[in-house]
Amino acid sequence: MAEPPVHMAQALRALNTSLYVNVGTAKLPHPFKTPTGVAGNKRIHGAAEYATDVDLSEDAEFIWQGPTAAGEGGPGNGQEPKPYTWAGVADGVGSWREYGVDPREFSRALMEGCVDALRSALEPHSRPPRPEELLASAHSRAQEMGVVGSSTACVMLFDGAAHQVHFSNLGDSGIIVLRHIDSSVAGVLKRDRVLKREEKRGSDLRVSFVSQQQLKSFNHPYQFGWLGKENEEDSSNSFKTSDDLCTSSIHVRRGDILIMATDGLFDNVDVDDIRAVVQAWEKENEFVKGNDLAARERRWEAGITMGYKAGRSPEDLALYLVELARERSLRDDVDSPFAMLAKENDIMWSGGMPDDCTVIVAHVVGEPTTRG
Length: 372
Description:
This protein is of the alpha+beta class and 372 residues long. The protein has a single domain (11-365), classed as PPM-type phosphatase domain (Phosphatase 2c, domain 1), CATH 3.60.40.10. Helix content is 31%, strand content 23%. Strands 4, 5, 6, 7, 12 and 13 form a 6-stranded antiparallel beta sheet that branches. The chain has a 5-stranded antiparallel beta sheet with strand order 1-15-14-8-9. It has a two-stranded antiparallel ribbon with strand order 2-3. The longest helix has 19 residues, at 103-121. The protein is globular, with a radius of gyration of 21 Å. 40% of the residues are buried. This is Protein phosphatase.
């Protein structure tokens, strides 16, 4: 009997093998933040050290990796549990402070509501709840609790058995996917930018997907929100609902790096610079040595994993990114992505955009990792 080509056989084996993710997160508050608010600039903030207390951040996040849901029919049906991971970020709108409302409460209520919905939904014989369902439930819960405020939000579901990530986004938080793609077959993924020669030679790591922002106008993102029961009609007119979510699915591969973040990252760090940071992180951890993807494939086929590094390193990458975002946000000599977009909208803004920043990194791997 004829055998399929080697490359096709490898691809079919990969499709029948579950994937997993190692996840890490990091966050920093607005550098000028205090318990009573935010200074408008560095001069007003004064000589005090930049803020590091994450409790001051108006961002919120969650990661849920257990218990894993079972296959159709639930436990005892002869199917292995499927590797699901959920994660989300939310960015509370800081201008609520002007009205005596703590902006942290609504973003936290959304993320806590997602976790609450997961606890209720992960029962035997149940399918995994999708991101749009979690956000719809969380929004309703926040309204029922009477939490006043507003927030952007992005939630993803990693389905390791299907090799897919499903996500729902409202506003200007988002998710990007980085992947090694051979330059000769990059096609539409090849960005029309000139990279440094050594970078072009050194890696074929590319940004393969970027979620789209949802904006009413410049710096006015779509938001979930609530003005209180007495202002229910105004809430309906002012804010968005789960019906307005941008929802999509992405096919993922082993070795992909997923980065979900609030706008504190994307406003200050260009996606090409994010790619460079991820490339350096891969090199530091020796996930890809000398851009030799063939060697990585041989290691995978031999069942050799780097779980001892992979389990802890996503948190390191998340920290690198939030620290870079803060550094760039404080510069006034280089225009950030926020500044460039502002000028496209006839708003004179130079340098960075100080803000809270939260990053979740998910590294797609072939074996479950036990963190030490």
